């Protein structure tokens, strides 16, 4: 595969952008090689600057569920842009998107639009603290909630309830308010729970240590514990919202959080985020309440229009069944190929998101996810990349199937995976 133009661009990018990328995982550090510079997408495919095409399973980390350059999104966005792209004033479209989200997501009675998932989580945390008048937050190891200070925290050593910064630049005085416990471990939560806890935040199905499912009773347990202590339960559904079902993970599992964070899919490929919840809680936000949060581009009409059209398409009956059928076929094909090649893998899957872990153990939390062999994943990744299949450049990320993936794409992917597995031995 000729990647000369990507090589040249990467060298130039490194001159002007730290590490050559605007988000770290794009630099291919954990898989090696040259990141491809993408200049076009269409349906299930993306194209790099050398003209190579790839079947895309990143899909902008799940945001692009309809496929690239989806015609209905493009034409709606074009119409919206012709009327002006930002006003810093209220617009009718944002009311429509808010109504659509409230109708779809069980736990949301009111919603505030922001510009990214990070901003949604950061604002939800402030709201939880403001509403409860408490400071502590409990989060789970391996869950990613964007890059706000209080969320870039790792577990302290031993039984320490104080978290420690997971990045330079985060004061220990901020980190100490976040406690990190293992995913799927209710006992650990109980041990660190007290009446200073403003909220427990969780990815109800985790997508950011690879896909990890909540074990039976985990989400129910979190709901019970938070209620018992008067803390809020925050579901970070930035990935799972409108992905696992039209109502997200909370609809699938029948657990209603107090606050829900959204992003990715609801912007149809444009920058957006949202946080919503019970009316009583949401009305603590300014201008009604004392929790301040604002944004120049919040509810941006172009992003909102793209989101509205995307959600409209997803509300069509049969959409999620279709995604499910395709993903089942792909995952079954990968399992069979691994068996045939004698490669040991564990696949975790929920609806149209899944991860392939190169490990023998079942993956239920961060430490078991970390047992996935990084060298094997890197070899697998590069083998597929060179054969025109684009996977996440990290073993701890999810693959996303979208509505644009065709039966032929799935077939071709399975054949390519077979080849990659046989090369791995
Ligand atoms: C992507 C993601 C975020 C952050 O969203 P950005 O738009 O990248 O800021 C937060 N939470 C989860 C679960 C995510 O997957």
From TrEMBL:
The keyword Cytoplasm is annotated on this UniProt entry: yes
Family annotation (Gene3D superfamilies): Aspartate Aminotransferase, domain 1, Type I PLP-dependent aspartate aminotransferase-like (Major domain)
Assembly behavior: Homodimer.
Family named by the database record: Belongs to the class-III pyridoxal-phosphate-dependent aminotransferase family. HemL subfamily.
Modified residues (N6-(pyridoxal phosphate)lysine): 264
Domain of life: Bacteria
Protein known as: Glutamate-1-semialdehyde 2,1-aminomutase
């Amino acid at each position: 595969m000729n990647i000369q133009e990507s090589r040249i661009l990467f060298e130039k990018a490194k001159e002007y952008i730290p590490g050559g990328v605007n988000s770290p995982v794009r630099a291919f550090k954990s898989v090696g090689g040259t990141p491809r510079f993408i200049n076009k997408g269409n349906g299930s495919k993306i194209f790099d600057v050398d003209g190579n095409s790839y079947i895309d399973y990143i899909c902008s980390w799940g945001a692009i569920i309809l496929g690239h350059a989806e015609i209905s999104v493009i034409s709606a966005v074009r119409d919206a842009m012709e009327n002006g792209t930002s006003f810093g004033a209220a617009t009718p479209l944002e009311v429509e998107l808010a109504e659509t989200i409230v109708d779809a997501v069980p736990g949301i009675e009111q919603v505030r639009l922001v510009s990214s998932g990070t901003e949604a989580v950061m604002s939800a945390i402030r709201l939880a603290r403001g509403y409860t008048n408490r400071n502590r937050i409990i989060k789970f190891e391996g869950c990613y909630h964007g890059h706000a200070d209080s969320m870039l925290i790792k577990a302290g050593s031993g039984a320490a309830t104080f978290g420690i910064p997971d990045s330079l630049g985060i004061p220990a005085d901020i980190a100490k308010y976040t406690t990190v416990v293992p995913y799927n471990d209710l006992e650990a939560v109980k041990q660190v729970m007290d009446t200073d806890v403003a909220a427990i935040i969780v990815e109800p199905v985790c997508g950011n240590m690879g896909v990890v499912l909540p074990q039976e009773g985990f989400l129910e347990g979190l709901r019970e514990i938070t209620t018992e202590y008067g803390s809020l339960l925050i579901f970070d559904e930035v990935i799972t919202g409108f992905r696992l079902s039209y109502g997200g993970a909370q609809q699938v599992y029948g657990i209603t959080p107090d606050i829900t964070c959204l992003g990715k899919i609801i912007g149809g490929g444009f920058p957006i985020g949202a946080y919503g919840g019970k009316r009583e809680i949401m009305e603590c936000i300014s201008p009604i309440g004392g929790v301040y949060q604002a944004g120049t581009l919040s509810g941006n009409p172009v992003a909102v229009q793209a989101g509205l059209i995307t959600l409209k398409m997803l509300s069509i009956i049969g959409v999620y069944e279709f995604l499910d059928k395709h993903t089942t076929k792909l995952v079954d094909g990968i399992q069979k190929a691994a068996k045939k090649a004698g490669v040991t893998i564990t696949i975790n899957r929920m609806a149209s998101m899944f991860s392939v872990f190169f490990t023998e153990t079942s993956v239920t939390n961060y430490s078991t996810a970390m047992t996935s062999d990084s060298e094997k994943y890197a070899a697998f990744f590069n083998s597929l990349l060179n054969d025109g299949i684009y996977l996440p450049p990290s073993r701890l990320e999810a693959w996303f199937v979208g509505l644009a993936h065709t039966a032929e794409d799935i077939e071709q992917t399975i054949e390519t995976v077979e080849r990659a597995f046989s090369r791995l031995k």
